[in-house]
Amino acid sequence: MRSNMSRRILEKAEPTPGLLNYDAVVIGGGIAGMEASLDLAEMGFKVLLVEREPTIGGKMFLLSKVFPTLDCASCISTPKMAAVAHHPNIVLWTYSEITRIDIKGKGDFEITILRKPRFVNEELCTGCSTCEEVCPVVLPKEYDYGLRGRKAAYIPFDTAVPKKAVIDIDNCIFCGQCERACPAGAIDFMQRPRIYRVKAHAIIITTGYRLFPAERKEQYGYGKIPNVITAMQMERLLSPTRPFNSVLRPSDGKEPNSIGYVLCVGSRDRTVGNPRCSQVCCMYSIKQAQLILGALPLADVTIYYMDIRAYGKGFEEFYQKAKAMGVKFVRGRVAKIEGLPNGNVRLIYEDIDEGRVKSAEHDLVVLSVGLLPSNDDIISTIHGEKLAVDELGFIRVDPSTPTQTNIEGIFAAGCATGPKDIPDTILEAASAAARCAAYLKSLRQEKAVPVEAVANGGR
Length: 459
Known about the structure:
Elements: H1 4-10, E1 14-15, E2 20-27, H2 31-42, E3 47-50, E4 65-66, E5 71-72, H3 73-86, E6 90-93, E7 96-105, E8 108-115, H4 130-134, E9 138-140, E10 149-151, E11 153-154, E12 166-167, H5 177-181, E13 194-205, E14 209-211, E15 228-230, H6 231-238, E16 258-265, H7 281-295, E17 300-305, H8 315-325, E18 328-331, E19 334-339, E20 345-351, E21 356-362, E22 364-369, E23 371-373, H9 376-379, E24 382-383, E25 410-412, H10 422-448, H11 451-455
Parallel strand pairs: 1-13, 2-3, 2-13, 3-6, 7-24, 13-25, 15-22, 16-17, 16-22, 17-18
Antiparallel strand pairs: 4-5, 7-8, 8-13, 9-10, 11-12, 14-23, 19-20, 20-21
Helix pairs in contact: 2-3, 2-10, 6-7, 7-8
InterPro entries: 4Fe4S_Fe-S-bd, 4Fe4S_Fe_S_CS, FAD/NAD-bd_sf, FAD/NAD-binding_dom, HdrA-like
Pathway: Cofactor metabolism; coenzyme M-coenzyme B heterodisulfide reduction; coenzyme B and coenzyme M from coenzyme M-coenzyme B heterodisulfide: step 1/1
Subunit structure: The ferredoxin:CoB-CoM heterodisulfide reductase is composed of three subunits; HdrA, HdrB and HdrC.
């Protein structure tokens, strides 16, 4: 939620005169948005890529490795981030929000975009991080899910695109140290938000997903028991850009000897309104288990699961490899998690194979949370026609053309249409770009045919 400070600033947004023209607007700068933008740009179309965060990259950049190949996630995403930033047919707007989409007609969308102020002149900022070094305010770092801190003046991460500082105005104390220290004189507290109107012929929605808030499962103690963390926090602990030099548990900074994974937290669970499988939780947990055993060879890793859904190419072999490495798999639902005086965590669970309730003690417990839609803000901005969504809020697409929404000219890809892994996301983004390109070319052809020729049957 925005504070009173940011709300007051955004209320003073200044409209920019004129109308900017692009062939397509891509909403969301994760791996799907970058792939779709690059594909369209390579076909010669002018693309505007809009991302709400200060940098593109999405959640893929935050991962350690990808399953089942265990390739470096950032090694895949970083070159795409650079390619997007330097492509002549792509205009990149980060730290920007879509506030309204008006459907004027076939292939005619007018999009209102709010560009929030960074309070840093992007043309002058060199990304040196001097402002971050001198800033006295320390806050939980979102990109590390609170495992370490960041400053009120900060660059999200070392390879951010664009690598420009941003000032968190809600938590800034206006001490002026960043302004005095900046060697480029880039700090500008007089910046104001600006509103732009953009005309586009097509839109691709690649808004990704949000993680199930683990604190909603109160019986699991997330946020109350220090050594209960989420799988995304574990991703950061395993990442090459990790906050610590090893896998450490939060309460005392010690390496855990016993780690338990609880699967399907917020997935396949009607009590939280999400009966659907999130498709990736089993495999990312197995991936993390293998990486943990690489980092902590003497650790015991146990995965508590309902069903292992290893359905993709190489997934079953990946699952069997984890078993061979010594990862234990227990089929059962965890009913409750309790903190112990020694800092350890007790799991009370139902062992389905034996048909009885058991308990187990671990140094660290990881909650494998599910994926939820992140489309609400975009859906509410569309005027003129209602964008169809399914019962969970994911964008509904035509089964025969899986990236086409119910609105002509609006396409969707990646986790905006439902949970999926990275290869499927990239494939779907490429498909959306191809269908969007075909649609744009058909519009050009229609405009190229004179009205008289159409009336005379093309003669």
